[in-house]
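To the team - flavin-adenine dinucleotide complex, inputs and output below.
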Amino acid sequence: MILRSGDIGLIMARRMTIEGIEVVGVYEIMKTPNGLIRNIEQCLNDYNIPLHLSTTVVKIHGDKRIEGVTIANVDGQNKPIKESEQFLECDLLVLSVGLIPENELTRNTQILISPITNGPIVDENMMTDKPGIFAAGNVVAVFDLVDYVAATGEIAGRCAAIFIKNELTRIPSRKVSVNAGNNVSFVLPQKINTDATGTLDLFLRVQTEMKDAAVMIIVNGAPAKRLKKERVILPSAMVCVTLNREHALDKDVTIEVRGVNNET
Ligand SMILES: Cc1cc2nc3c(=O)[nH]c(=O)nc-3n(C[C@H](O)[C@H](O)[C@H](O)COP(=O)(O)OP(=O)(O)OC[C@H]3O[C@@H](n4cnc5c(N)ncnc54)[C@H](O)[C@@H]3O)c2cc1C
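Output:
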């Protein structure tokens, strides 16, 4: 059995089924799946592997090897409900409970790390707080799509080349913070140079699923502009929004996700 429904757990469920292992199910503590919709379809539904939401493992049984687990439904606060406990026989439990950036090098270099992403805090050039040290991809935050990873790599590479030629004129310059507001767990980059020009992609992840959602930029505590509208936004799917030059910033901003009827 597999605990949690992130993409890796889903891919493992499919792979193990292909290899002849019976997967009794994927158990997810949240009330919505944690992986990409296409992985739910292609890894679970296509192989008739059941997904159990709002359920978790509360006990693992076995001495020399695993013999089974006790599962339980959880309440609104994700606390296991004792009366719902149930023993499930199994000889393998896969814990697919999340990824964190590989940040040993970042820590050793004493680069400022975000407690939310566990990766370095970067600006729009993908430069860390240490001038000349750039970061991109999963070392910054766990991305679900390689396209976004590649986009951050291109920015870091281009800006590192400019930096080497001493043409990144805004160093040192004043930076503003891009804060995560309502229903946003994190936004990348976390800093923007005040003299940044042109368009800029922001990557964010929401905390909970929201239908008919608007991604808003909040300046001085008031909504300044809607950056994107989505029929549904899920915690499992990173959102990319573009900030245009017209938003050239001179003070901290907050990115929020609100219902489309609640934009003002
Ligand atoms: C199991 C899994 C499946 C995925 N499937 C998909 C998918 O189907 N489609 C998709 O778009 N995305 C997928 N992703 C998302 C994935 O995060 C990105 O696609 C992408 O691989 C991340 O690229 P990266 O270069 O940032 O990190 P990685 O691909 O992890 O590359 C980091 C590299 O750095 C090396 N390294 C680490 N520390 C050091 C060091 N100190 N010195 C030198 N080298 C070092 C590592 O060995 C590794 O080779 C998947 C992720 C996982 C974990």
